[in-house]
Write a structure and sequence with these properties.
heterodimer, A: 120 residues, mainly beta, 7-stranded mixed beta sheet, B: 107 residues, 4-stranded antiparallel beta sheet
Chain lengths: 120, 107
């Protein structure tokens, strides 16, 4: 079945950078849009970014625009999130999620998440 | 941005109860509405898309309805494994937005 495995989380100081990865398997990765969604401790879900199936379209949430960059490597079945200028409020579990289409916004599968903690 | 408002924010129910959660969008979103379940310490799981269509493998005790601005999620007979937090999410336009969540607790 569809598998999404995130990695790259950890503890990072404010202002520093971190890159998350999401390895996808058991579906044709290059046919589907992909999302990052985060959840701060004890809080609800917050959408972060989407990338279309071919990487030609990208959208971001207002809170990360200009600081985070979503990308993908279809030859490696891998999704990325480059996070720069990190802030304490970026502390969250980051989930990789598969779109049901090219980037419709309807999510059908979720990864298990990787935890990012921004702290000095 | 489209705001999604869920009610109630929490509810207490017993095994076998029928439970209904509502979600309201700040503007019309047609039927571009999903429902997501999250159990404590676990990843989210998608239950429903297009307001009323079940994701593969989701039991028929879950049902969704609505269109435009008002939507509902109903669990026909609550089971122990259904105690969780439920979120609605609109995908009519970017940025995607989620409701604040409804925590279903055991009475």
């Amino acid at each position: 079945q569809v598998q999404l495995v995130e990695s790259g989380g950890g503890v990072v100081q404010p202002g520093r950078s971190l890159r998350l990865s999401c390895a996808a398997s058991a579906f044709t990765f290059s046919n589907y849009g992909m999302h990052w969604v985060r959840q701060a401790p004890g809080k609800g879900l917050e959408w972060v970014a989407v990338i279309s199936y071919d990487g030609s379209n990208k959208f971001y949430g207002d809170s990360v625009k200009g600081r985070f960059t979503i990308s993908r490597d279809n030859s490696k079945n891998t999704l990325y999130l480059q996070m720069n200028s990190l802030r304490a409020e970026d502390t969250a579990m980051y989930y990789c999620a598969k779109d049901s289409g090219r980037y419709s916004g309807a999510i059908d599968y979720w990864g298990q998440g990787t935890l990012v903690t921004v702290s000095s | 941005d489209i705001q999604m408002t869920q009610s109630p924010s929490s509810l207490s129910a017993s095994v076998g109860d029928r439970v209904t959660i509502t979600c309201r969008a700040s503007q019309g979103i047609s039927n571009d509405l999903a429902w997501i379940q999250q159990k404590p310490g676990k990843a989210p799981k998608s239950l429903i898309y297009a307001a009323s269509s079940l994701q593969s493998g989701v039991p028929s005790k879950f049902s969704g309805s609505g269109s435009g601005t008002d939507f509902t999620l109903t669990i026909s007979s609550l089971q122990p494994e259904d105690f969780a937090t439920y979120y609605c999410q609109q995908y009519n336009s970017y940025p995607l937005t989620f409701g604040g969540g409804t925590k279903v607790e055991m009475k």
